[in-house]
Structure formats: structure tokens, C-alpha cells
Design brief:
By secondary structure, the chain is an all-alpha fold. The chain is built from four helices and no strands. The protein has two domains: about 30 residues, no CATH class; about 35 residues. The longest helix is centred in the middle third of the chain and has 21 residues.
Length: about 70
């Protein structure tokens, strides 16, 4: 799919912008989550429990997609 994007755009600018946006979102999330107040709030909210709850659904999705 990524190659299709590059082939339709001769200089690959759209792909570069998309990957740059993803990198900025990851960097921004890292900055927000590095704040001690945010980490304290997230631990009280129970993000770890949420991740454990979601993982079986994600694994099931990938198994269905591989079929």
C-alpha cells in the first residue's frame, strides 16, 4: 500500500507528510506522558488494565485478518 502512495505521487511528498505527522503525534504523546501529573492521573485511571483488556481483541483481529 505504501508503494502505491509513492507511485501515484512522483516525489513522495504526501508519504513524507504522513510519516512526519505520525512522528509528531508519537513525539507529542511522549511529551504529554512524561509529565508527572499526567502519569499519576493515568495510573489512577488504570491504563495498564485497559491495555490488558484490549490485547486479546487485537490478537483476534490479526488472526482473522491473516485468514
Amino acid at each position: 500500500m505504501a508503494m502505491d502512495l509513492v507511485e501515484t505521487n512522483e516525489n513522495g511528498r504526501d508519504t513524507l507528510y504522513m510519516l512526519g505527522g505520525v512522528a509528531l503525534m508519537v513525539f507529542g504523546a511522549g511529551l504529554v506522558l512524561s509529565n508527572p501529573y499526567v502519569r499519576r492521573y493515568m495510573s489512577r485511571f488504570g491504563v495498564g488494565n485497559l491495555a490488558e483488556t484490549v490485547m486479546p481483541d487485537v490478537e483476534r483481529y490479526f488472526r482473522l485478518r491473516a485468514m
